[in-house]
Amino acid sequence: MSQQPVALITGAGRRFGFALAKSLLAEGYRVFAHYNSSRDGVAELEELGAVGVQADLTSHDAITALIAAVQAQTQRIDLLVNNASCFFNNQTVDSDPTALAAVFEVHVQAPYLLINGFRPQLKQADNAVVINITDIYTDSPSTDYIAYCAAKAGLANLTLSFAKALAPEVRVNGIQPGPILFLPEHDSEHRQKVLAETPLNLEGGLEPMLQAVRFLRDNPFVTGEFIKVDGGRALMI
């Protein structure tokens, strides 16, 4: 069996998922870069050697097919990062039942199926790690995003359960990001308000998230833990 480490990242086409995939490729990983509808970032990753894998994470059948496709190409997975997300407010999920379902399918059902489905490959690796990207609102939910926060809390509980169930062969941890990268639609007023409520008073960028992944990957005595990468914002919400 090849000794090249293998990673699977969901939502690898943009933002943190894209940056993490590029970082791991530079470290010599074989990277399976999951995407749903946008191939822009994944096409660039493929040019760097990644394997793009498409799946709609709201579909049980699509996830099953994704698992089978990856299993056909590798006997091991050293790092599984459940990063894919959908972010809908109350108004959206209240008016669109598919949006409400998607929040729980993407954040809870998909990670559950992927972790369970890849158990054999994770156990084949030496020091395999699962990292779930949750949210600082897991512990202190926003009343504007009730379903989203509940789903992320479900992912956090899933993290703890699998940390117990997969030990000692596989470690399972989570990262709770705060204001890492603002979205294009965030105006200056919104940005200033968020930063004013963040003790370190800055937009974190992606490198602190990458450092958190490296810590959770490389420290062999950490499982069932969460790291807040939020500039202290969780203290204020």
Automatic annotation (TrEMBL):
Keywords: Oxidoreductase. One of its GO terms (molecular function) is oxidoreductase activity. InterPro entries: NAD(P)-bd_dom_sf, Sc_DH/Rdtase_CS, SDR_fam. Pfam families: adh_short. SUPFAM superfamilies: NAD(P)-binding Rossmann-fold domains (SSF51735). The keyword Oxidoreductase applies. The keyword Lyase does not apply. CDD domains: PR_SDR_c. PROSITE patterns: ADH_SHORT. Belongs to the short-chain dehydrogenases/reductases (SDR) family. This is Short-chain dehydrogenase. It comes from Pseudidiomarina homiensis.
